[in-house]
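step: validate -> pass
step: tokenize input -> pass
step: predict -> running
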Amino acid sequence: MASRSVDLRRRTLFVGAPVAILTVTAAAFVANRIASQEFERTTNRAISTAARRAAASVDLFLRERQASVALLATTPTVVDHARAAGNQAQVMGLDRTPTAELEAQYENGRVLGSDERVNRFLERVRDDSDFAELFFTDRHGLIAAASNPTSDFVQSDEAWWQRALASGSDQEAAEYDESAGTEAVGLAARIEDPVSGDPVGILKAVLDLSRLSRVLAIPADTSVITVQVVDSAGRIVAASLACRCGRCRAARPSRWGSRPPLPHFGSRGSQRNSSLRLRRTVDDGG
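step: predict -> pass
step: emit ->
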């Protein structure tokens, strides 16, 4: 009788143990699967939220800076100098001179006129803003004043200049700007006579996109998420401050911190922000 009891216990152990192990294993697998799915859903929600916030921040950043350019184009300093430069160019016959001759004539100083006060005004605006470069032309497309040396004296043959003259504003695609030395977006606005409304020039600002890193700062509760902004060629031009990938450009601090250099009242003309795309990644902590 005792031997039968031992044998029964052995058979129960041999049969029951594997079943118990399989049951525990299956339960662990199901629990892990549920946990993984929940983690994936939570992560996707966090990424989507961060992406929506970043997209809104980038769009607002670009629209505000376009508004700053439009407002700067209405200041008396810019309007008066652009008008005077255009009149001077017409008296000198520069509006009828071939581009090649003008470039050769102004090779050593690609600015029409010699009023350094206007150039210094643009330099101060550049230094206290997110712009890497500022300049404006007269109505003939000749450089009237600039914060930085420009590569060409004649700008009227540039597509952005022609678009801004026709529509009142322009936003170029993101690209590396050699003269500014940074990934940048060109923003332009038409300078108009405040009385007649006639165009007297075009103002262009080169917007330093590395400043976007400050705008893309991620809240502490989502610090494991990196938001990257890439241009149409797939190059990373800015990333959230949480990024540790080593490929992103460091943001240069602005003297104004989070404040814009000029008041913003909304942009003029349509915005073409499709040149910037958002890339969302999860930082693995490495």
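step: describe -> Residues 242-286 have pLDDT under 50 and may be disordered.
step: cleanup -> pass
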